[in-house]
Amino acid sequence: MVLFRRILGEVLRAHRMRRGLTLREVSAEARVSLGYISEIERGQKEASSELLASLCGALDLPLSDVLRDVSDAVAVEERALEIVPTPITVGTGPGVVASAA
After folding, report:
1. What are phi and psi of 20, to 5 degrees?
2. What's the whole-number average pLDDT of the chain?
3. pLDDT at res. 100
4. Is residue 63 a contact partner of residue 56, using CB atoms and an 8 Å limit?
5. Alpha-carbon distances, residue 51 vs 7, 10, 18, 26, 74 (angstroms)
6. How far apart, in whole angstroms, are the C-alpha atoms of residue 16 and residue 69?
7. Which whole number is the average pLDDT over 18-25?
8. 74-83 contacts at long range (C-beta below 8 A, 24 or more positions apart)
9. Whole-angstrom Cα distance, residue 49 to residue 79?
10. Which residues contact 36 (CB under 8 A, 6 or more apart)?
11. pTM, 2 dp
12. d(CA 27, CA 12)
């Protein structure tokens, strides 16, 4: 959940900055405290669906665009965290006698 919260905040911040809006402007338009929006952007607070709708409205951005960007970023993070299996070498443990071929 922390991963999702962090990425959601990063996506919202990126969209806000792309539009050249300040936190204060988004705060006034969304009618949400500046501090709360800041905490969401830093991934410290979770945004309810109602709050997300307000933020998307303030950013003039469809919620589906935000969720798609979050989904894409989560997929990248998941691939980066995948555990690569370590190959097992057969016949190298104790008691195995190597033969010269």
Report:
1. 70, 30
2. 86
3. 52
4. yes
5. 16, 16, 20, 12, 21
6. 14
7. 96
8. 74/3, 74/4, 74/7, 77/3, 77/7
9. 27
10. 45
11. 0.76
12. 13
Q: Work out the end-to-end distance of the chain between its first and last CA atoms, rounded to an integer number of angstroms.
A: 55
| Contact criterion met (CB below 8 Å) for 47 and 40 | yes
**Residue 30's pLDDT band (cuts 50, 70, 90):** very high
Q: Are 25 and 60 in contact (CB under 8 A)?
A: no
CA distance to 6, 87, 96, per residue, from 10 (Å)? 6, 37, 53
Does pLDDT of 69 surpass 90?
yes
Name the residue with higher pLDDT: 26 or 85. 26
Inter-residue contact 14 to 46 (CB < 8 Å): no
